[in-house]
Amino acid sequence: MLKFLSERNAKFVDYIILALLDLILIIDFTRLGNIYAIDSNIFPFNNQLVELRYLEFSVYGFSPWTYTIGGFSLETFLVNFPIYLFSNLPYSSIFYEFFFLYIGSILIYEVVIDIIGEFSKIARLASIIATLYFALGPNSGGISDDLFEQIYIYYIAIPLFIFLLIKFFNSKNFLRTLEFFLLLIPSLVLIYYYAIPVYALSTAIFIGTILVFYSIKSLMEKKFFKVSLLGITLALGVLLKHNEILTIYKSFASSKSFIFISYYYWVSNSYGSPLFATLRGINYIFGSPPIYIDIASFAIPILYLFSLMNRKTSKNSEILLFLSLSFIFAFLYSMPNVPFQHFWEKLFFEFPILTDIRTQYILVSPFEGLAFSYAVGFGSYALFDMVRNKRRVYKLLSIILVALAIIVVPFNVLTEGGGQSIVHVPTEFLSVTNYLNGNSNYNMSVIIFPIFLLENAEAWYHGPSIFPLFLKPIVILGGIYYSPSSIMYALINDFYYNVYYGNVAPKAISYFNNFIYLFNVHDIIVEKTATSSGPLVPEPSGFSIDQLNKGLEEYAKSGLIKLLYNNSLYEIYSTNIKSSMLFVSESYYNITQLLYSNNASYFLKPIPVKYISPIEYVAYINSSYIGKSVYLYLILPYSQGWQIEEGGKILNVSNYFGYILFKVNITNTKLIFYNGFVQQTLDNGIKQIEMMLVLPVFFSFIIYILGEKYLMKKVI
Known about the structure:
Layout: H1 2-32, H2 48-60, E1 62-63, E2 68-69, H3 74-86, H4 92-116, H5 121-136, H6 148-170, H7 174-194, H8 196-220, H9 224-240, H10 242-253, H11 256-268, H12 275-278, H13 291-296, H14 299-309, H15 311-314, H16 317-333, H17 341-350, H18 352-356, H19 365-386, H20 392-408, H21 411-414, H22 427-438, E3 445-449, E4 456-457, E5 462-463, H23 467-470, E6 474-476, H24 486-500, H25 506-518, E7 521-527, H26 545-557, E8 562-566, E9 570-574, E10 582-585, H27 591-595, E11 605-607, E12 609-613, E13 616-620, E14 629-634, E15 642-646, E16 648-656, E17 659-666, E18 670-675, H28 676-709
Parallel strand pairs: 3-6, 3-7
Antiparallel strand pairs: 1-2, 4-5, 7-9, 8-9, 10-11, 10-14, 12-13, 13-18, 14-17, 15-18, 16-17
Helix pairs in contact: 1-4, 1-5, 2-3, 4-5, 4-6, 4-19, 5-19, 6-7, 6-8, 7-8, 7-28, 14-19, 14-20, 16-19, 24-25
């Protein structure tokens, strides 16, 4: 009992050490940029509207960037709900990143300790070293990257699965086995929703290898129950999700052209990383390192190869498993810079199983970084164990070797200027959003100039625009990714280039007035520091901020727009429009017909509409329309399932270039628009969360309490 308490106290001390190390690293990653600088599109920001946007994204699948509602999905909820929670805290980004890194660090620490099989000082130190490599690895693709999926895969899903799987197979009694089996269910759910849809190949190789290894190990130990229990569960999971898996397959893997593209996406990202460099934990994508870094990096393979030199660790099959995974993923990470390149190309193009589990990207780095983290931890233990009873000089040399291995890890950013890409939201941006929110509401829109293809390209930030997170009005971004259709994309571009070139011909002015009327554009936001190297829409003569300013001045002189707000980064022009999100007409009109008409307000009459939530709107129509069949053009988030709950009988409903178009027989002056489909997905989603996440964790907790009181000692 005393030994157990002393171990628990020592582990508590180690957890505090891990927390301090991770917090120091995260403060640097998010604020200082000396080691890594996070240029991320994930903005947990302590702001009321940001919180609301991420909550709406979590619950309804409402994307403020594309103005679409996909409905509730477990994947969207699991990604965005934590961001919403952390957006309620001061220093949100620090605590958000710290939370995931710290959980991952604890899971790495526990696995290394468990597999080593002792709780000595050197085992604890080796486990902490493994977590440092985990946090700093340049090939990890984790917290220093900007993809939601990579953060959740690298820091939560895979480490949690490994931890629970080892606990499950190594448990010595029935209650503990059942406890960890129940906890494996939500961990497999995380892997299914985060890793499988995007990174199927690497996920299958990584967790498949671990599953097969521990299953064979258990069968050799005659633990048939555990293997059967897990195997049956996985088979049932595949049967239950058969349709979803088939959809993923049809979307990606069934397309030979897509397989071809995904392979070369992988290959093009591998040319910069030769195998001899990857085995040393070095990333050559940023260029060759200084000679002293290049030499020092040999400390890394020397360190993890000590696992083979130490008699104790070389006989531990679990340590050899993770060392093998390190070599496998180093090999995959450096494709095609390996021997027999044509053989591998043929294998990944034509071998049925491998081509069938191909999805969007062949991403190797998170898995490679994760495997190396374990390997470095085991290698550190093996080295410390070998010099445990040696003279001080050997101990000193071993510490130097480990220190070199850790210091070398993040070299690729250190040698490339570190914090140059770090993102801090400037006060000028917040001032603009506060000004607009104070003078607008949810029932209008703003448009951003210049128009970008995919992302923002201001001097302080390159990535998806964050205006949709911070603004009440609908934000029209206009790029290919953001436009609901190619026609809509072209119409927005025409509007933009008329202003850009200062075209004040009568037709251009009519187009301008019709556009801002139809889409209720109250303000134009100009990003003054937009760079010409950004992914702008195609234009005849190249982007120039001076040309854009000239065009805006020309429109201001013509009285079409008025400068209302100006700071060093942004300008706001008002359009002085009187319009709405909802229009009514007794005839159908094509969007191009309306835009190129002399006056769109002649054809469509505005109706005041009140925003309740992304899935509910209320409007009041003139009593003269009661009993008539009319067309209602309402700017709603694109989604199926829109209906009129009160005030009219729907004759037809369809998507219409930024609108939902209803043909309705009006029965009342009050109209309630509601999306029943999204609400239904939310109701089903709550049941999914209860069944897949809450109940397994709840029952495992009950079993844990029972196990503490009535621990069964019978070995399965």
